[in-house]
Structure to design on (248 residues):
């Protein structure tokens, strides 16, 4: 099956928050993205609400339920009690847990699974009990995958930042793809699904998808939003969907 696209709305929300105005509308651009064929919408509500606001979550939930019932809502975040309460109220189809410090500008590393199993297992179980699929942000470390599986999670999300940073250096890109691919192979071997995200673009997606044909979903925000300034949101989504391997 072709890899699905989830559009991360954080950069749009950050632009909106520069002024005390209701535009650009996070939900309206989410509507355009879903209408253009995106499989879902992703947000990462941070404690300081510097981009996605807590008040955005019920609006996005309503958008999906009322207009795109086949789409998925993916919420990312560090599992504080406040975050878990937000998730339980928003009822996303997927929750992606990340090991971020709240002050980080963006996610830049995965979980150290060998030391995190005991902490993550009850959180995974709690979220799955609410009906959510649980994905864990993961570095390209094949040897850690057995511990990721031991948490009971459904998927990992490969952190592709190092791969995204290799633009213009084909040898480095090939090495990063192989590390990611080896980690994906290990995950699939123990029954974990595989997502990916961070610094993915129309240019670098095809090679990643070719190496990991079972890649279930990519979550893309910054590069997609940048392209939307040039091509418009609908056409940008279509370009990324084609880069994911969909025909048409």
């Amino acid at each position: 099956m072709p890899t699905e696209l989830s559009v991360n709305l954080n950069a749009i929300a950050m632009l909106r928050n520069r002024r005390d105005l209701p535009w650009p509308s996070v939900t309206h651009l989410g509507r355009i993205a879903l209408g253009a064929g995106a499989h879902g919408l992703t947000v990462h509500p941070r404690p300081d609400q510097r981009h996605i606001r807590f008040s955005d979550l019920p609006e996005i939930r309503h958008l999906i339920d009322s207009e795109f019932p086949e789409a998925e809502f993916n919420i990312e975040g560090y599992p504080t009690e406040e975050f878990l309460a937000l998730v339980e109220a928003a009822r996303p189809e997927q929750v992606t847990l990340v090991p971020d410090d709240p002050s980080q500008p963006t996610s830049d590393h995965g979980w150290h699974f060998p030391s995190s199993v005991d902490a993550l297992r009850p959180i995974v179980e709690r979220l799955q009990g609410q009906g959510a699929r649980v994905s864990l942000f993961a570095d390209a470390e094949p040897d850690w995958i057995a511990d990721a599986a031991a948490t009971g999670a459904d998927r990992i999300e490969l952190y592709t930042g190092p791969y995204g940073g290799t633009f213009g250096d084909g040898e480095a890109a090939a090495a990063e793809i192989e590390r990611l691919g080896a980690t994906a192979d290990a995950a699939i071997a123990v029954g974990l699904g595989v997502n990916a995200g961070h610094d993915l673009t129309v240019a670098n997606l095809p090679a990643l998808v070719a190496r990991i044909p079972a890649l279930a979903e990519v979550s893309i925000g910054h590069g997609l939003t940048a392209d939307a300034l040039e091509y418009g949101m609908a056409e940008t989504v279509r370009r990324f969907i084609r880069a994911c391997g969909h025909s048409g």
